[in-house]
Amino acid sequence: MRTALAIARKELAVAFTTPWAYAVFTAMAALSSFFFVSLLEQFQQVQSLAREHGWSKLPPDSIIYRNLTDGVVVQLWGVVMILTLFVAPFLSMRLFAEEKRQKTFALLLTTPVRPVDIVLGKYLGGLGLIFITLGLTLVFPVLLSLVGSGPSGSALEWPTVLLGYSGVLLWGATCMAVGLFISALTESQMLAAFLTFAVLLPWMLLRGVAQSTAEPLRSFLSYLAFDAQLQGMLQGVLEVQALVFFASVILFSLLLTHRAVEAQRYA
Amino acid sequence: MPITEKPIIEVRNLTRRYRDRVAIEDLSFTVGEGELLGFLGPNGAGKSTTMKILTGFLPPSEGSAKVAGFDVSTHPMEVKRRIGYLPETPPLYPEMTVHGYLAFVAALKQVPGRAVKAEVARVAGLTGVDDVMGRVLQNLSKGYQQRVGIAQALIGSPPVLILDEPTEGLDPAQRAELRALIRSLAGKHTVLLSTHILPEVTVTCEKVLILHQGRVVAHDAIDQLAKSHGQAEHASLEEVFIKLTAA
């Protein structure tokens, strides 16, 4: 376990000495604040329309704009989830691919470190990176509750916000696990990033495909879709099914990574 | 020739194939404890492959290799605990500082937390990298990078050192220093040293093993080599080497 932690620490230390991690953090902060502002504007528009005409005159789906939590933060988490899909491959790509290209993988494989510690260390390092990236977006609900607290208390329902946020974190952890496995298969970071993206995106879009199929296949596909599994959590509903689903995807990816590291010796 | 010392490395009928290309074939030899063995051979003779198998980086196709009595295939962890390995390309993380890197390797080798600092200082002193501890590895000269690579292998003072072309990229003065360092390690450590710079072997090693096309063509003490391979007694290592590997 100590070696796993040493590997994770090294992973973070190296990431913070390269401009790469900062570029990813900046992209995440810039894009999510852009969406945050436009979500706020939309919220304000609907609110002023409602003040003029009354909520009953507005289309039924604008009901979510009745409060900040559903109208802004839950929407924002949906956006952050999509951004994570784009950002995570760039964080996970170097985990193993870089070690192989630099020939430093020989060091990990010839020192008395068990493959399971290598995998765990790499994954913990990756988790650290994605959690820092996602941590940046926590500033938006904090801003809202600082500015928006009125006499009736906070403008946000924090339990809903935080549950949605843990859904986002769970999703980030899943992306990193898939990315870790793909990174263990290749020497090229570009290829690792591209393949990770090529696996995650269709998996995310599976729900759309499911809509056009007939019944038994349809529920099967929507069960597998990341998007469908996450919806409940993002809206603040804790579903054991989703937890089990993502935990299995992570565990399975880590097992495959372990196999890939062991197979390195037999390449 | 009788083996006087207890063998610490035992290689039996070792074969390694890469698909249909044979890198080493039916290799058998032993290395006694505290020996300093020069591992010679032309490029592509299988030196690096043998070293990779001994360090547990590559599995053998056939045969077995034992280090300190532990089989590489069945007890890889026990073997790795006893080996310090410098691969052909020193495994350095370009973004790390020398100190950060050596401390990381110490953690990988499970040097107890409190002893890390002293151990890093010890190997840095031995290899003469103590004046660049704060510098980033990618900015160091090739010579310093190579020395950091050796320092890394020395961490935890493993009984067996496997050095794949350690003098590569060093200038003559650094080479001389490194030779002195390696000679000083003999006795405490068993050293397997691969190189194709022959004069270097004559001054560092007592014994040599010459590989050619994946087979052992000679394994003897340097002063015995010429005699046992039917050459004039004063024949240099180079002459013997060229004769044995001409095929």
Automatic annotation (TrEMBL), chain A:
It is a multi-pass membrane protein. The lineage of its organism: Bacteria, Pseudomonadati, Myxococcota, Myxococcia, Myxococcales. Keywords: Cell membrane, Membrane, Transmembrane, Transmembrane helix. This is ABC transporter permease. It is found in: Cell membrane. GO terms for cellular component: plasma membrane. One of its GO terms (molecular function) is ABC-type transporter activity. It comes from the Bacteria. The chain crosses the membrane at residues 12-37, 76-97, 118-143, 163-184, 191-210, 230-256.
